[in-house]
């Protein structure tokens, strides 16, 4: 089985197949890597099918800005994302004390994933389309990405939440 670090020089895209469904696929040119979908249309709960496992991204409290990650069918989270006050960045706390920082942009740069403060690992770029479409650039090999491959789709999920929340306010 390929790890995400093996896709460094490959074109990776996240796209929405159908404009009427909230389902997103992470694809290489020739294979489906992961699928993110919302079981209910207006829900914040999302499910990610990846490498034979299913993960859930959810808000632990109704008005919370934080997001937890758990394996489907389990109660306890395996990771927690703490958002800063403005929502432009946050920290993903993984098991064994590993911290991943995420920064979110407004236009072309949708999200960036850092190990530590300045060690850029992944960039997610917007591509103009009527349906959601993003390009994934894996900057360098990372053991964290290989061990927790759902991190890329989680960053995409957070950028989707930011878009929905800003549209609801504005």
Main traits of this protein?
single chain, 170 residues, mainly beta, Porin, twelve-stranded antiparallel barrel, 12 strands, 41% strand
In short:
By secondary structure, the protein is mainly β. It has helices spanning 143-147, 151-169; strands at residues 12-16, 23-27, 32-37, 46-50, 53-58, 67-71, 79-83, 89-93, 99-104, 109-115, 119-126, 133-138. It has a single domain, classed as LURP1-related (Porin, Beta Barrel).
Structure description:
- This protein is mainly β.
- It has 2 helices and 12 strands.
- It has a single domain, classed as LURP1-related (Porin), CATH 2.40.160.200.
- It is 14% helix and 41% strand.
- Strands 1-2-3-4-5-6-7-8-9-10-11-12 form a 12-stranded antiparallel β-barrel.
- The mean pLDDT is 87.
């Amino acid at each position: 089985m390929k790890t995400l670090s093996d896709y460094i020089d490959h074109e990776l895209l996240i796209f929405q197949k159908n404009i009427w469904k909230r389902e997103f696929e992470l694809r290489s040119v020739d294979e489906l890597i992961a699928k993110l979908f919302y079981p209910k249309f207006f829900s914040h709960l999302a499910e990610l099918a990846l490498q034979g496992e299913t993960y859930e991204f959810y808000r632990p409290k109704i008005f919370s800005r934080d997001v937890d990650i758990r394996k489907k069918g389990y109660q306890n989270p395996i990771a927690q994302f703490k958002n800063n006050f403005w929502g432009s960045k946050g920290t993903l706390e993984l098991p064994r004390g590993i911290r991943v920082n995420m920064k979110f942009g407004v236009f072309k740069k949708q999200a960036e994933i850092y190990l530590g403060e300045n060690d850029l690992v992944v960039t997610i770029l917007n591509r103009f389309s009527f349906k959601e479409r993003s390009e994934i650039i894996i900057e360098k090999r990372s053991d964290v990405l290989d061990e927790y491959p759902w991190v890329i789709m989680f960053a995409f999920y957070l950028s989707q939440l930011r878009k929905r929340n800003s549209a609801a306010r504005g």
